[in-house]
Amino acid sequence: MTARERADRRTGLLFVAPALLALATLTVYPGLWVLWLSLQERIPIFGIAHFVGVRHFAFLAVDARFWNATRVTLVFTGVSVALELALGLAVALALQRQRAGRRLALSLLLLAWALPSVVTAKLFEWLYHPSAGLVNVVLGGHAFNWLGDPRLALPGLIAADVWRTMPFVALLCYARLLTIPPEVYEAARVDGAGRTATLAWITLPLLRSILLVALLFRTLDALRAFDLMFVLTGGGPAGTTETLTVYAYRSLFQTLQLGFGAAIGCVIFALVMLVAWGYLRALRGEGAAA
Amino acid sequence: MRRAAWLLAALALAAGCAERPRGAEPATIVFKHAKILGPLDPIPGLLREFERRNPGVRVRSEALTWTSDEQHQFYVINLDGATPTFDVLLLDLIWVPEFAQAGWLLDLSPWVTRDELAPHFPAAAAASVWNDRVWGLPWNMNVGVLYHRADLLRKYGLAPPRTWEELVEQAQRIRAGERDPRLEGVVWQGKQYEGLVVNVLEHFWANSTALLDEHDRVLPEPDRAAAALAFMRGLIERGVSPAMVTAGDEEGTRRVFGDGRAIFLRSWPYAMDLFEAADSPVRGRVGIARLPGHAGGAAGVGATGGFHLAVNRRTRHAEAAVALVRFLAGAEGQRAIAEAAVALYPTRVDLYRDPAAIRAHPHMPRFHALALGGRPRPVTPYYLMLSTTVQPEFSAAVVGVKTPEQALDYAKRRLEYMLSGLR
After folding, report:
1. Min CA distance, A5 vs chain B (Å)?
2. Cα distance from A45 to chain B (closest Cα, Å)?
3. CB-based contact (8 Å) between B248 and chain A?
4. Where do the structural domains in chain B lie, given as residue ranges?
5. CA distances in angstroms from B346 to B62, B146, B211, B361, B371, listed in the order given
6. What is the Cα–Cα distance from B65 to B43, expressed in whole angstroms?
7. Cβ-Cβ contacts under 8 Å, B69 against chain A
8. Is A234 within 8 Å of B193 when comparing Cβ atoms?
9. According to the model, what pLDDT value does residue B162 have?
10. What is the pLDDT of residues A253-263, one digit of tens each?
11. Domain segments of chain A: what residues?
12. A149 in contact with B, Cβ within 8 Å
């Protein structure tokens, strides 16, 4: 490295220093603090604060409620993200072909995405009402107990989440579709490609990277899902909709077990980081290929 | 006595002000509370009256979010900090021992004698005291009661049931006679939240057992507790309660009964004001009774709830804040709330015989006896830990994914682990 390069580097560091400092104080410091907290028994209202090492993590390893919450979180994330991507893609493709009323369709899509999730939750509380809810009326007057039946509560929540966030995927894909030059399609047609072939060999490959981005955002969001279940079911019935974030919230803010709650928080953090790392690797590979 | 207290308050304020360089700056105290909706909210008027009587004190009222969980979270975050952002707070009585233990509340014992608690319902007064000190003053009262369709019971020549077993029989008989598939037997709160714990506690008590006994033992008689839970599950299995109760909260179940689609409802007094509203389908057809007991158990008793007024320990205006609490919880403050047509019930016993209050709520004398017999939930600083730990287990037993024995066994083991480090 020449002296010139070194000087440049130093200036560069100087320029990014404020950003790094902000990142450190806002992210790294609280993160480390939570990690430190998770190694303690800390319940302020009883004046308890002492180091316990990995005891909380050891308890979590055999805690049925924790494993149930982990399972609920993973099922919720897997199913809702898969449905959101599939439906979002289908809607984007439909929008591309649609001529009339496209503007109206776009605003309707945005509406679902723009509603605060607590409002969405309240909306679905009504839709799912066993005797007065629209869902049961549409299904032919069955008295499905959507939010009170342990087999139906999680599917009900997933449907609400898909309704709310599918537009996000649809809009992302639609925006990408608009940037594909028509010449590409013309060339495909000249080569004799049919509808399916065009979709499989042109549209989908070109949407790949944007789909990966949508997948990343949606997965990270779904892993941290909280408000829908908190408002609609409170984690019930029988804990069948209790995600890790709801469990962490109950431990931290309701029972004020800061150490124990922080331990759950660390697990969520590790899970999210793992997934983000995997996706980022995939995305980087994508960038190299393109 | 009262005059002396005001004088003291004024003197203390004057002294406080004298220390400041700017002199006669008015003390502003912030009152944090859940807003009473509608134009009939009596609080603003009460606060202005307080200001008129206490020159130099201003009260700013700040609204709190609606749900109990969010209120608790707000208080936990803001009371733990060093700077007081509010002076007087309205809090759910189950939080009083917890906040007192945490050192967040001002000990009111130097101002409030036990005599001052005497005019309140015993269950409400008991919730103000923790470790022999007074931490708050009762502000409004709730008690679990059994609503029934008086017109239907009369039609079949029945009196309100004294046991749950009798209630089941009555519900079956009335439904067989009415032949209305939309008419449910009894609705109650079975969603996984605090309301479920209240409902289960009432069944425990009716079955002569408890969640926490006087020696702080968790679930001292698992067999009796399991029988109570099994009975609740049985209500759903036998079709006496609709399956929707497993997701039912206060408002959801209140609407079912209020639409005339249930014979019995377990709820709080506020529901009566809505059943008697001008556009209510069940207006004039609703009766109130004590909750049933269990055959072979104890007589029924309703759980009590309500809100208390307390002072932030870090307040800079302790005298004025305590004065405000005593004014709002006092005879005049509570009368204003009782006489307004809002569905809040005072904790001062004599107001249940007050003509103006009875004009606003004609059924008040009926609630008097029920509130007198009410029983508080366990008064302990770890109540929330207790409640949130048992919620998923009670829910599991009520929806039938676990047997009552399995659910209680897990709840007991978990609670013992959680509490072992605290005692």
Report:
1. 49
2. 4
3. yes
4. 2-142+305-376, 145-301+382-420
5. 22, 19, 28, 11, 10
6. 17
7. 230, 253-254
8. yes
9. 96
10. 888 888 999 99
11. 3-38, 64-289
12. yes
Partner B contacted by A224 (CB < 8 A): no
Rounded Cα distance between A269 and B163, Å, is: 51
Question: Using 50, 70 and 90 to split pLDDT, how confident is the model at B17?
Answer: very low
Best mutation target, A43, A45, A118, A250, to test chain B (most B CBs within 10 A): A45
Cβ neighbours of B99 in A, within 8 Å:
45
Share of chain A above pLDDT 90, in %: 46
Global confidence as pTM: 0.84
Topology of the domain covering B145-301+382-420: D-Maltodextrin-Binding Protein; domain 2 (3.40.190)
pLDDT of residue B291: 97
Which whole-number Å values give the CA distances from B1 to A46, A82, B125, in the listed order? 36, 71, 21
| CB atoms near residue A171 (< 10 Å) | 19
A148 interfaces chain B, CB cutoff of 8 Å: yes
Give me the total of CB pairs closer than 8 Å, taking one residue from chain A and one from chain B. Answer: 119
- Which CATH code, of 3.40.50.300, 3.40.30.10, 1.10.3720.10, 3.90.190.20, is assigned to A64-289? 1.10.3720.10
Q: What is the DSSP string of B144-195?
A: -EEEEEHHHHHHTT-PPPSBHHHHHHHHHHHHHHH--TT-EEEE---SSSHH
Q: Which residues of B touch A46 (CB under 8 A)?
A: 101, 381-382, 422
Task: Inspect the interface and report whether the beta carbons of A257 and B385 lie closer than 8 Å.
Answer: yes
Neighbouring C-beta atoms of residue A170, cutoff 10 Å = 28
**Residue range B378-393: average pLDDT?**
90
A65·B98 Cβ contact <8 A = no
Shortest CA distance to A244 belongs to which of A272, A217, A218, A216? A272
Dump pLDDT digits (tens) for B112-151.
Answer: 988 999 999 999 999 999 999 999 999 999 999 999 999 9
Distance CA A156, CA A207 (A): 30
Per-residue pLDDT at B25: 63
Contact predicate B31/B60, CB 8 Å:
yes
Among residues A240, A245, A7, which one has the least CA distance to residue A117?
A245
> Is residue A61 predicted with pLDDT exceeding 80?
yes
Q: By the 8 A CB rule, do B303 and B377 touch?
A: yes
- A255, A258, A260: which to substitute to probe chain B, counting the most B Cβ within 10 Å? A255
Tell me the per-residue pLDDT of A218-252, one tens digit each, with 9 for 90 and over. Answer: 999 999 999 899 888 888 798 899 999 999 998 88
Helices (H), B1-147: 2-18, 43-53, 68-80, 96-101, 114-117, 122-128
* Average pLDDT, integer, range A77-93: 95
The reply to whether A238 touches chain B by the CB within 8 Å rule is: yes
What letter would DSSP give residue B354?
-
Q: How far apart are the first and last CA of chain B?
A: 41
Query: Could you say which architecture CATH assigns to the domain B2-142+305-376?
Result: 3-Layer(aba) Sandwich (3.40)
pLDDT at position B18: 41
